[in-house]
């Protein structure tokens, strides 16, 4: 069930350059059904900016009623959100979308989790659930530079973790695909979230593997009504378009045309 709720900010901190971790508490957490879902946040008490901002859920705990969000402060909306103080409230709509299904990987198998930039957060809860299921997780996380790296220790606590930076200031130099080409791994399924060119490269690199891709797309309503996040599919005859906010953001490999 989708709720609209005034959630209380328990904490907020900058964990990397312009990357903020925000912990929210409220009843909405009980409705989250899968890693990879997101929420739509009204960042101001006025209607400026008008649109809500979609933020991925990095982790959640139903027992405490808390969820953790990680977002980049890069525009007016997220900039305002980053200025919020603990104890204040924000209006949250969610949980939204269809997330990852950890039960797609069998206990004892190996899953490859590939994240790029602000596409890294939804993979954290996924890794926790896969690990709890007995799946061995390998994380390959790409960032622009050392100043942008976040949650390295958190992922490393769950399994093998590679950090890749475009400028080589942390971990390996290059892109996540470069790292995987230099040091290939054996895995049963992959899960990935990040910019579209990265998703395209990952899908092309593993055409015979079971894969699940989470798409980052500009959104208006977040509930499938405005058609702002429509993408073409590979099957133009039976289902030519999908809406990332309500049909996704997670799709099996080969569904969305990229």
Q: Characteristics of this structure?
A:
single chain, 258 residues, alpha/beta, Elongation Factor Tu (Ef-tu), domain 3, Rossmann fold, 2 domains, 7-stranded mixed sheet, 6-stranded antiparallel β-barrel, 15 strands
Describe the structure in your own words.
This protein has 258 residues and is α/β, with parallel strands linked by helices. The chain folds into 2 domains: 3-96, Translation factors (Elongation Factor Tu (Ef-tu), domain 3, Beta Barrel), CATH 2.40.30.10; 102-216, Rossmann fold (3-Layer(aba) Sandwich), CATH 3.40.50. 16% of the residues lie in helices and 36% in strands. The chain has helices spanning 76-82, 122-132, 152-156, 176-182, 196-205; strands spanning 3-16, 19-25, 38-42, 53-61, 66-72, 89-96, 110-116, 136-143, 160-165, 172-173, 189-194, 210-215, 230-232, 241-243, 250-252. It has a 7-stranded mixed sheet, sandwiched between helices.
> What's the order of the H and E elements?
EEEEEHEEHEHEEHEHEEEE
Question: Can you count the beta strands?
Answer: 15
Mean pLDDT over the residues? 95
Cα radius of gyration in angstroms: 18 Å
Give a short account of the largest sheet.
7 strands, mixed
Strand order of the largest sheet: 10-9-8-7-11-12-15
The CATH class of the largest domain is Alpha Beta
Beta percentage is 35-45%
CATH architecture of the largest domain: 3-Layer(aba) Sandwich
Shape: globular
Helical coverage, percent range:
10-25%
End-to-end C-alpha gap? 31 Å
Domain tally: 2
Query: Which class best fits the helix and strand makeup?
Result: alpha/beta
The CATH superfamily of the largest domain bears the name Nucleotide-binding domain of ferredoxin-NADP reductase (FNR) module
The number of helical runs is 5
**Low-pLDDT stretches:** none
CATH T-level fold name of the largest domain: Rossmann fold
